[in-house]
Write a structure and sequence with these properties.
606 residues, alpha/beta, 33% helix
Length: 606
């Protein structure tokens, strides 16, 4: 009988809070066999990351307590001293985290950091460690590894930094790799690269993997078995294919129901709400299409024409101008009242800069942005203030968007007071009404942001955006950081508000499955330019540009039956928008594929 590489039995992790030991993980048990990938899934706060930190014994001993048994290759990790555990970490079991920039030392080159880990665990001289580091960088498919050995982490993209972390984790050939949300912060194409890389290296090294995620599409693609966690407990465990085909626990069914799937909108002309699932029973309602609120013959509420935004690059002691970032290049589109136009593309493609240029958080170099026929780029002073009331923005991180020292009711009321639209009593009443409108009790207005969950904080940001009764809302990756079921709730709320208020949304996202669900039209961006734009059903049903097809092909499919389909490992980094001072962008031409469906005739992005 094969012995498990890792065996976790009755794991319970508790923290000392106000003199009482409170468990956050309770009686969790699972095994990981040689060469096997086990996924631990659940929403934020379910205890999945705490389980991984407990296995690695990375929790502070002063206020945490771990009980049960954690056996790695026959050794009980809970019985080891701290020096013995230090020898295990990185050598027998390694861990990669969600955000590589916080895991890498910004003051050390990536080559030095990996070599340091090798010399800590193995009797290697500096030259030997550096030679092995170079081999590892090539192993994780970092282009021009020798040239990049001496570079610092900030010079790498997010995907390449994650490859560096994988190289460091594999340095001592561990028998177990723990990957804690390693792709959550990455674009869909970079996520596909990292998943393919982990799978390929696992096959080459005969390594076992504990993969922690809340993305059921990723689970289907990579995991042999799955552990579903809820409120610190493992509520369902089994082969991934069985869990997807016949989920037994209501919470598992709720998780699966909240996963958007590419192609699910075939035959539906308008955006569709997500099913509302009861986690206690697993039962759900039947999702409905939104009502038709878009009038294609009316005047656009937002018109962007030939928008260009560039950022100067200065270097040297004299801060001499040496180049420019062509963030947005000659972009044009319009949005009707009640319509959602989605801007999609990878990080660095310019989609967020478009949103910021529209509300003038950054200044555009040229072009026009008409809101109800008036050019916001030409406004100044009070006129600009008044124009901004019509266009509001919702950002990706709601916690960073809210003042931690201000009660949420005051945060919602502040725009009304600043613009002189209500007195103190009227602003408080309006704030309470808006909280109710986004599904939160009005009495929560006296709480501070840290007292809310991520999904609730995003609802508060939506309420604040609605305070000035805007015509247009720019949602910049507004649901990207949320768990699947919370994401479904927030999107349903946005669709309900659009239906009742005829709001126009500019929905900025890299999540193609969500975009398919919520949008009327889609614009695909690459290197600051729109390479394809058209009705949602045309873009998803008949993609014409190579880059659009690349984005769609990279989306994880929540179907374990397709797990054997090996993705081709693409080592390309995102192309750079940095240009020389004398660069003149070519004049792009577009081909009309069908009514409203335009595609750039340049083949960039293939």
């Amino acid at each position: 009988m094969t012995t498990p590489v890792l065996s976790v039995t009755d794991l319970t992790t508790s923290f000392l809070l106000e003199g009482t030991w409170r468990p956050v993980v309770r009686n969790v048990s699972f095994d990981i066999m040689p060469k096997e990938t086990v996924a631990v899934v659940g929403e934020s706060g379910s205890g999945k990351s705490m389980t991984a930190l407990s296995i690695m014994r990375l929790l502070p001993s002063a206020n945490s307590r771990i009980s049960g048994q954690i056996t790695l290759a026959g050794r009980d990790l809970l019985a080891l001293s701290e020096p013995q555990m230090q020898a295990v970490r990185g050598n027998d079991v390694a861990m990669i985290f969600q955000e590589p920039m916080t895991s890498l030392n910004p003051a050390m080159t990536i080559g030095t950091q990996i070599a340091e880990a090798l010399m800590w665990h193995k009797p290697l001289q500096r030259a030997e460690a550096e030679a092995e580091t170079l081999r590892l960088l090539e192993r994780v498919r970092i282009p021009a590894a020798k040239a990049r050995f001496g570079e610092y982490p900030h010079r790498f993209s997010g995907g390449m930094r994650q490859r560096v972390m994988i190289a460091m984790a594999l340095a001592c050939r561990p028998s177990l790799l723990i990957a804690d949300e390693p792709t959550t912060a990455l674009d869909v194409t970079i996520q596909a690269q990292i998943l393919a890389l982990i799978k390929e290296l696992q096959d080459e090294e005969d390594m076992s993997v504990l993969f922690i995620t809340h993305d059921m599409g990723v689970v289907a693609e990579i995991a042999d078995r799955t552990v579903v966690m809820l409120k610190g407990e493992a509520v369902e465990t089994g082969p991934t294919e069985r869990i997807f085909r016949v989920p037994e626990h209501p919470y598992t069914r709720a998780l699966l129901a909240a996963v958007p799937q590419l192609g699910s909108m075939t035959g539906h002309a308008r955006p569709m709400r997500f099913p509302v699932v009861d986690p206690a029973t697993g039962g759900s309602d039947t999702p409905e299409e939104t009502s038709d609120t878009v009038s294609p013959l009316g005047s656009p509420v937002l018109e962007v024409a030939h928008l260009t935004t560039r950022f100067d690059i200065r270097s040297g002691m004299m801060s001499r101008l040496t180049g420019r970032v062509h963030a947005v290049e000659n972009v044009s589109f319009s949005v009707q009242p009640g319509e959602t136009l989605a801007l999609v593309g990878e990080s660095g493609c310019g989609k967020s800069t478009i949103g910021r240029s529209i509300v003038r958080l950054v200044e555009a170099d040229s072009g026009s942005v008409l809101v109800d026929g008036e050019d916001i780029l030409r406004q100044k002073g009070r006129a600009l203030h008044a124009m901004r009331q019509r266009v509001q923005m919702i950002f990706q991180d709601p916690f960073a968007s809210l003042n931690p020292r201000m009660r949420v009711g005051d945060a919602i009321a502040e725009p009304l007071l600043q613009n002189g639209l209500a007195d103190a009593a009227g602003a408080r009443a309006r704030a309470a009404d808006l909280l109710e409108r986004v599904g939160l009790p009005p009495e929560m207005s006296r709480r501070y942001p840290h007292e809310f969950s991520g999904g609730q904080r995003q609802r508060i940001c939506i309420a604040r955006a609605l305070a000035l009764q805007p015509n247009v809302i720019i949602a910049d990756e507004s649901v990207s950081a949320l768990d699947a079921s919370i994401k479904a709730q927030v999107i349903n709320l946005m669709l309900d508000l659009q239906e009742s208020l005829k709001l126009a949304y500019l929905f900025i996202s890299h999540d193609m499955a969500v975009v398919e669900r919520v949008s009327h039209r889609v614009a695909v961006m690459f290197l600051g330019e729109i390479v394809e734009i058209g009705p949602r059903e045309a873009i998803f049903g008949n993609p014409q540009h190579p880059y659009t097809r690349k984005l769609l092909a990279a989306v994880p499919v929540p179907d374990p039956a397709r797990q054997g389909r090996r993705r081709a490992l693409n080592n390309d980094e995102i192309a750079s928008p940095v240009r020389t001072l004398n660069y003149v962008p070519p004049l792009r031409q577009y081909r009309n594929v069908s009514p409203g469906h335009l595609v750039s005739m340049a083949g960039d992005g293939a």
